[in-house]
Amino acid sequence: MAVKRSPLRADIDLEAPGKRVGHVRLPYSSHESAYGWIPIPIAVIKGGEGPTVLLTAGNHGDEYEGQIALLKLIRALEPEQVRGRVIVLPRMNLPAAAAGRRTSPIDGGNLNRVFPGDPDGTVTEQIAAYVASVLVPMAQASLDIHSGGSSLDYLPCAYARMPQDADDRARQHAALQAFGAPRAILVESPLTNFSMSATALAAGHLHFSTEIGGSGTTRPASQAIADDGVRRFLAHLGLIADAPPVTTPTRMMRVGGAEHYVYAPVRGLFEPAFTLGDDVVRGQLAGRIHFPEEPERAPRELHFAGDGMLVCRRVVSLVAPGDCLAHLASDI
Ligand code: ZN
User: Fold this and answer.
1) Predicted model pTM
2) pLDDT tens string 260-292
3) Measured in angstroms, how far is the CA atom of residue 162 from the centroid of ligand 1?
4) Domains of the chain as residue ranges with CATH
């Protein structure tokens, strides 16, 4: 049986020393462009001997801190400053990023739910397959920069899966402290096993993700965490000599299971009773869902199922059953 090969190709040399910026070309024949390809931006900056680090953003197209941080890094970093190789994909799911959407307008694909992808699949599955089968094996470490996107807002944090192995935990802890976000949230029950993070960890990478802000925008404080954190991650791995210092130690937190989440059970308008950063206790009022079609009907009250700090909230007031409204994290 023939081995499936990704039809995607980088139009720059990813192996030779130097700095190159180009595209990963994804062949795509559409009504507008019969023999066209989708140009996913890629950069490589390779200096002396050292490890390869893969930096990605725009996995979800409406998360901007990472896209901007990586564009800045591509312009600033020169091969003579690098011991090793940095491969940068600032807009990994380009069709989604170009449309300012979480998911691809071409196939509806959520890139972070289709890893390790399929080289014969949809456009989104083909992107995942290229990253998983070509770029991930080139690297020993990776960082996938996310934020809350259009529907969620986060207290800026690094976001990582809780490793089972003690050595892995220590290595991860050191990297999270080096990244220097105000918080690092370790996830005990990941929402998906089909993410970039799952693929990178399965390949043995030192890897974590982030949730830096959100609301479909960026802010000076959250942008600085992304900009500086990327440099501190590279310095921690020995690829660059200098990075901005960490001012405050990272607060280590965990997010557990259902007790840490609040979901909408009904359709309506959500009125939160909390602010990001609040410490709440089990049974406390989380908010009310109002029924605009039935003005005389009392709103449905929602309560927290556990204790913790509000680290994430939905920013869109219109809610439907199944929407995540908030989630908590607690200190480790
Ligand atoms: Zn995301």
Assistant:
1) 0.96
2) 999 999 999 999 999 999 999 999 999 999 999
3) 18
4) 9-255 (3.40.630.10), 262-331 (2.40.50.100)
